[in-house]
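Chapter review: from sequence to fold.
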Amino acid sequence: MTKFEYYKMTLYESEIIKNERRLKTLLKTNIMLSLDNKRLNTENIRIKEQLEVLQLKNHGFVGRDRKIRTIGILCDNDQYENQGVLN
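The token string follows.
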């Protein structure tokens, strides 16, 4: 093997090692971002549920004990029908 061939082989090996390190780093980053995404999705669902409760409370559908008894259904004319219990 000539010096040039040895040099090329060493260069390729170092590139392979660098790429392997980059790949490991990207995989770790991907895992961390995936976990953050799951956490944020869970938090987003919780916030949406709180928002729904606050909207229902604003429309008078939540009692003093802050439990939802029945939920009214909006009609096309934005009026509540008699399907909800107003407090």
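Two observations follow directly from the output. The chain has one domain: 1-87. The radius of gyration is 30 Å.
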